[in-house]
Specification:
Layout: E1 8-14, E2 21-25, E3 40-42, E4 49-56, E5 59-63, H1 67-73, H2 77-93
Length: 99
C-alpha cells in the first residue's frame, strides 16, 4: 500500500524571512491534512513561521504571523517539536543543508 502524502499547492510564494520559494506544504503529523486559511506553516529553509492568509483556485497566499499568532504558536508542542527537528537536521547537515 502506498504512503502518499497530500500536499497543498501554494502560489510559489517566497518566505517572508529568507526569500526561499515555497511550492507546497504538508502536515508533519497528519498526512491527510492540507493547509487552509489560518493554518500555521514553518519554512523548511529558515524555520520562520508563516500563516496561510487565503486561497484562490491557483493556490494559497501566505503572510508573516501577527505577534499574538507567533506567541501562541511557540506554546504549541507540535510547533516546538517541528522547529527542533528542523534545527537538528540543519545542524547535522552543516554546509550541505539544502532543502
Amino acid at each position: 500500500m502506498s504512503q502518499e502524502r497530500r500536499v497543498g499547492r501554494l502560489l510559489l510564494t517566497p518566505c517572508h524571512a529568507c526569500g526561499f520559494i515555497i511550492e507546497g506544504a504538508g502536515d508533519v503529523e497528519d498526512a491527510g491534512h492540507t493547509p487552509s486559511p489560518g493554518s500555521l506553516m514553518i519554512c523548511i529553509a529558515c524555520g520562520a513561521l508563516t500563516v496561510v492568509d487565503g486561497s484562490t483556485a491557483l493556490g494559497l497566499y501566505m503572510r508573516p504571523p501577527t505577534p499574538d499568532e507567533h506567541r501562541r504558536a511557540l506554546t504549541d508542542a507540535r510547533v516546538v517539536r517541528a522547529l527542533a527537528a528542523r534545527a537538528i537536521l540543519e545542524a547535522r547537515s552543516g554546509d550541505q543543508w539544502d532543502p
